[in-house]
Amino acid sequence: MLLYAWPFLPPVQDELSFSQQNKTSYLMLFKETPVKFLLISCLFLGLTDASIAYVSSLALGRGLNPSIFMMAISVGAIIVRLFCTGVYRHFSRMMIAAPSFGGMGLALFGASFANSNIVIALFGLLYGAAVGYGYPTHLALIGEMIPQRFRGELLRWFISRWILVGRFYPYILDMRQH
């Protein structure tokens, strides 16, 4: 249900008035902006991104070729980024963000039950299309939702958490299995 909360988020004011215009802090960032929703979205995006490491082992266990899934991801993302940018003219970025990582999660779920290379390739295309919309949309939302004075702080925070989740999530899951 959280995935469909994006359309109901409050709009951000262009500039917030303060006596100290140049001072920014994480406390002010979290108090004054709807960044919490963006970070929750980025957490889910990072978790689905980190989970593609397991598709290879699942595919090999079923006798499938995991590189077909990875190649389909690339093809899907390239097709979306080259030919499907008109979606941004018809829908707001908020309406695209949640379905993008929802599509990534659905593709991973479907790929985990795939029993042929064609099926895993189709789920790879879905994942690639979702990635093609998801990453640029989430980066653009930082510019749309956050006032100018907070953008550098948030971008640094966002990228560092994205890297941490993507790097350590597979290890944490692997430690739980032993």
Structure description:
With 178 residues, the chain is mainly α. The protein contains eight helices and no strands. It has helices at 26-32, 35-50, 53-61, 66-83, 87-90, 93-112, 117-145, 151-177. The protein is flat and about 55 Å long. The relative contact order is 0.18. Mean pLDDT is 77; it is low at 1-6 and 16-20.
Helices and strands in order, then pairings?
Blueprint: H1 26-32, H2 35-50, H3 53-61, H4 66-83, H5 87-90, H6 93-112, H7 117-145, H8 151-177
Helix pairs in contact: 2-6, 2-7, 2-8, 4-7, 6-7
Number of continuous helical runs = 8
Low-confidence residue ranges: 1-6, 16-20
Q: Let me know the largest β-sheet.
A: none
> Whole-Å distance between the termini?
32 Å
Q: Using the alpha-carbon principal axes, give the shape.
A: flat
The count of strands amounts to 0
Element order, helices and strands? HHHHHHHH
* Quaternary status: single chain
Helix content: over 70%
Indicate the proportion of strand residues. Answer: under 5%
Kindly provide the radius of gyration, computed on alpha-carbon positions and rounded to a whole number of angstroms: 18 Å
Mean of all residue-level pLDDT scores: 77
Indicate the structural class. Answer: mainly alpha
